[in-house]
Amino acid sequence: xxxxxxxxxxxxxxxxxxxxxxxxxxxxxxxxxxxxxxxxxxxxxxxxxxxxxxxxxxxxxxxxxxxxxxxxxxxxxxxxxxxxxxxxxxxxxxxxxxxxxxxxxxxxxxxxxxxxxxxxxxxxxxxxxxxxxxxxxxxxxxxxxxxxxxxxxxxxxxxxxxxxxxxxxxxxxxxxxxxxxxxxxxxxxxxxxxxxxxxxxxxxxxxxxxxxxxxxxxxxxxxxxxxxxxxxxxxxxxxxxxxxxxxxxxxxxxxxxxxxxxxxxxxxxxxxxxxxxxxxxxxxxxxxxxxxxxxxxxxxxxxxxxxxxxxxxxxxxxxxxxxxxxxxxxxxxxxxxxxxxxxxxxxxxxxxxxxxxxxxxxxxxxxxxxxxxxxxxxxxxxxxxxxxxxxxxxxxxxxxxxxxxxxxxxxxxx
Length: 414
What we know:
single chain, mainly alpha, two-stranded antiparallel ribbon, 5% strand
């Protein structure tokens, strides 16, 4: 297989001073706003789609598959989305993906069978995989490399605000108007994001008229030097996928009211964390932050498994949000930092591949365990798996020459 690229060796975007240490720009603020709109629709649907599957006749295990197949579809397209973001106009990719997201969500509204729901869920996952990968690569154009942790932290603010509002807004719309209206509204949000991106002050990369031809290789699709970081980041998503898919059902079984507060409190904690965590990551390094984050995430899963009341769930939400917020932010920034500017798309897609593996297989795993045992066993096993991943991370850091998150020797590629 061969690819044709008109990309210049330089990744300098028009109107962007790549030598500047400036973080805030009009384009960067615009991207945060577009990210907020897209993430709002995602959060309104993701925490309720399992319930929709059961409402149209699916079992608990099928509900888990419906929830997880989205991320599996995104996982499949990620490497090619990263390659496309490194070759073609990132802004155009984001616009096209937002339109496709809107169309796939519209399809949910006309779905009354599980097979058809699978189809639109897969289409949604593919378009989301392209959108999220290209948008991170586009945001990285405007973030100085030495401030990546801080910049990625601020970029995620829109997504955090959406996570605060989205789940409760989705549940409210379902209670008042039903699932169909939820799907119509979220589809409109995706189309609004596309419109906003049209007006993004970004003209694309400077290109030469000559055409460069080369083979598509594993290295052009996957940034192999960050695979371990992507997989560790995926463990946070593994827990998040289980929580998003099954917390509402757990609360219903245990008669715990107002479970939407769990998501709102957690998102508020992440919002506060995003304001300063990136600077901590840039200064203190990766190892310390990730280790603390994994411990907190494991404890939070155990808390959820044992929780008899909303109060204990809220405590678990705080721990989970501090862990996931700090851990994934630091790992994502490190993935981008470890590659040159021409491979940011590949690094972003590789990181998201780890997240998709966790987010996709988490609900499938959770559905199987909860069907055979119960929710407590499911969350406890998840806590054990997250704890075990910490050993893998520290072994890799030691072999790579890292100490307290700072590289002592040239990191070894896998």
